[in-house]
Amino acid sequence: MTILKTKFLLLLRRPGGYIVSTIIICLFAYLMGAGQQGKQPIAVASTMKEEATAQTMEELRKLADLDYTLYTEQKARQLVKDGQVDVAIFLQEDAYHLLVAVDFMDTRILQNELTAIYANRLNETALLDAFPKARQAEVASIVAHAKETPAFAIQYKGFGHEEAFKYDSKLHSLFGFTLFMVIYTVANGVNHIVMERRNGIWNRLIVSRIKKWEVYVANLVYTFLSGYFQIVLVFCIFYFFVDVNFYGGFVASLLAIIPYLLCIVALAMFVASITNTPGKFNAAMTVIAVPFAMLGGAYWPLEVVSSKIILALSYISPIKYGLEILKGVTIDESAYTALLQPFSLLVFIAVVLMGIGINVMEKKVEN
Amino acid sequence: MIEVVNLTKSFKKVKAVNDVNLYIEPGEIVGLLGPNGAGKSTTIAMVSTLIQPTAGDILLQQKSVLQHPIALRNVLGVVPQDIALYEELTAQENLEFFGSIHKIPKRKLKERIETVLQQIGLQQELKKPVKHYSGGMKRRLNIGVALLHEPQYLIMDEPTVGIDPQSRNYILETVKKLNKEANTAIIYTSHYMEEVEYLCDRIYIMDKGQIIATGTKEEIKAILSSEKTIELKLEKHSKPFVEELLQQGVLSNIQVKESHISFNVAKHTDFLPIVLPLCETHGIVLKSFHVQEPTLEDVFLHLTGRALRN
Q1: pLDDT value at residue A38
Q2: Are the Cβ atoms of B101 and A208 closer than 8 angstroms?
Q3: Contact B247, B261 (CB under 8 A)
Q4: What residue in A sits closest to B104 (Cα-Cα)?
Q5: Where do the ABC transmembrane type-2 domain residues begin and end (chain A) (predicted)?
Q6: Domains located in chain B, CATH noted
Q7: Count of domains observed in chain A
């Protein structure tokens, strides 16, 4: 307890690094979350009447994951040309044209949807035309009523190519950056051990009446708690003050982070055991953290990565498993049994790395 | 008494400490000298129970402490060469922390902190963060931390490195006082021979992992005391005088530098009956002469060699 208390006192004396890293997590998570569009933008230009255009737009907006905005034809063409949108739709009375960028994957589905909208409208027109003008208003109201209370409820779901996945850019950025940046906070905690071993404080602790395992436990608990408090703080800020939806899994996410954090503490201990100086340790942690973040999907969801090599490499990053658990308890609403695999893997990595780390550290003293 | 028996430590293929035997009795100050890489630090680390020896034993009151180091830790204080303090904390906070890890009861610790602050002369500065201390003040606090649990034995590893003469003098006086008043036995390592000569009752000289000389100051110096160095100052230089001096068989290592001549003679040889008649013969006026006894440094260099160490 004495060591733990002193560690927190030291943190209070020099809180700058901790505060700055917390601000950086919040800032990046916010900016990245806001910067990434949740829905893919689609430009629409129309030569139809205003009412018909509005009606078609309304139909189109029923499709999830696409965001339709009305432009002039010239502007719509320019947006596709500039790469700002992947698709421009040109609506006409009885036909439509698509201007599609080569990397837009859902052309066929969009085409199907548009064809269905046009087919419906043409059917409706044909139906009305089959009745005398005097009765057309009555038939139109019957059709409208039938639309409002359909015999079958149609739900639009999983609009995307290949496997569908749930993605919330704000939540993903928050989780990704928190898992990434907390590595540095944990590294800073473990760096205390590296520094104290060099400047003789560690030896003073060892030759005192405190047992060696108590010294290790106190340092590791401090490291864990400094990282955990930071995550709790960041999650609370985004939950209470920023409009981030945790899908009812806020408390669960605070618990779900624990195995990941244990794994990172163990990883930092392992790195500390094979590096002798604080400088080398910090350099090594930086070299490890960035690729782990990129491979683990901290910056972008792994579901959009097509490279098989990157996907294979992603399995070595604890961030992948951390994200899996966090997404599982929030947006994916996974069953707890589904989270057992990433949970077990993180705990397994933590036990192995911690064991090796402490052993190598002790061996170095003796050899 | 702490006894070190046939202590050996090997790092892979290198024997850093090879079959070292030493002891320290309550109330004495023992110096441990040696060039860099001699094995002093490894020996100290083993005696401090920081690392396990490859072979040999460390006994406290005839009982081995290798398996149960806590007995030794309770009576041993270690002043490391590095400043092992939390720079962000004040002297008081550092003392409180290092006192509490020795499980000193709160009330007792408060008293001990006051006593220690007095011993190291930092009563006025106890609320200041250590990072704002001078090198000397840090060194003093570094010593103070090791005194909190009233150790009967104290290991001091170069405690005066890099400080001003005033602080150094203060530390040396504190060590003396500690030894006299609290009867604390001290193992003192330093590269400053005059410190060891001033403080220590007995000296061990280590080199290449082994103890190569041991004894009291006088006994150590006696290693080189079979000869003494004589330095003559003449009124003027005289070549025939020097040539005739060279022919005297009892003198050795004669060196001439203008009107200064130095030579070695056996410790009990009376050199004046040889020199004075020669001066008279050559009409040379002997202005002065100086008899030089060997210093601890001379012995140290004689034993460990003058070649530079890495």
Answers
A1: 56
A2: yes
A3: no
A4: A209
A5: 136-364
A6: 2-222 (3.40.50.300), 226-292 (3.30.70.100)
A7: 2
pLDDT at A55 over 60: yes
- Residue A225 belongs to what H/E stretch? helix A212-236
Hunting for tokens 């609506």 — which residue is that?
Answer: A91
CB-based burial, B150-186: b 16+ in 10 Å, e otherwise: bbbbbbbbbbbeebeeebbebbbebbeebbeebebbb
Smallest CA–CA distance, residue B105 to chain A, in Å, is 13
B39 vs A334: CA distance, rounded Å: 61
Residue with tokens 């079958």: A152
The ipTM value here is 0.75
Please say whether the dihedral angle defined by the alpha carbons of residues B172, B176, B178 and B181, taken in this order, is positive or negative: negative
Phi, psi (deg, nearest 5) at residue B150: 50, 60
Minimal C-alpha gap between B165 and chain A (Å) = 24
The helix, strand and coil proportions of chain A, stated in percent and rounded to the nearest 5, come to 70, 5, 25
Residue A155 placed within a domain: no
pLDDT class for A160, splitting at 50, 70, 90? Answer: very low
Does B51 contact chain A (CB < 8 Å)?
A: yes
Token couple for A210: 């405190």
Distance CA B85, CA B106 (A): 20
One domain, residues A50 and A31 = no
The DSSP call for residue A157 is -
Return the DSSP state at B132. G
Question: Looking at residue A162, what is its pLDDT?
Answer: 44
Q: Is residue B184 within 8 angstroms of chain A, CB to CB?
A: no
B19 touches chain A (CB under 8 A): no
Cα separation, A16 vs A13, whole angstroms: 9
Produce one character per residue of B115-149: b if its CB has 16 or more CB atoms within 10 Å, e if not: ebbebbbbeebbeeebeebeebbbbbbbbbbbbbb
In a domain, A16, yes or no: yes
Q: Name the B residues in 267-306 with CB < 8 Å from any A CB.
A: none
Tens digit of pLDDT at every position of chain B (310 positions): 888 898 898 888 888 888 889 999 888 999 998 888 888 888 998 998 888 899 998 988 888 888 888 888 889 999 988 889 999 899 899 999 999 988 889 888 999 999 888 888 888 878 888 899 888 888 889 999 998 888 999 999 888 888 888 888 888 888 888 888 888 899 998 888 888 888 888 989 888 888 888 888 777 777 766 777 888 888 887 888 888 888 877 777 788 887 888 888 887 788 888 888 888 888 888 889 888 777 777 777 777 765 556 5
Q: Between B49, B83, B85, which is nearest A207 by CB?
A: B49
Give CA–CA dist B11/A328, Å, rounded: 50
In Å, how far is B211's CA from the nearest CA of chain A?
22
CB neighbours of residue B100 within 10 Å: 21
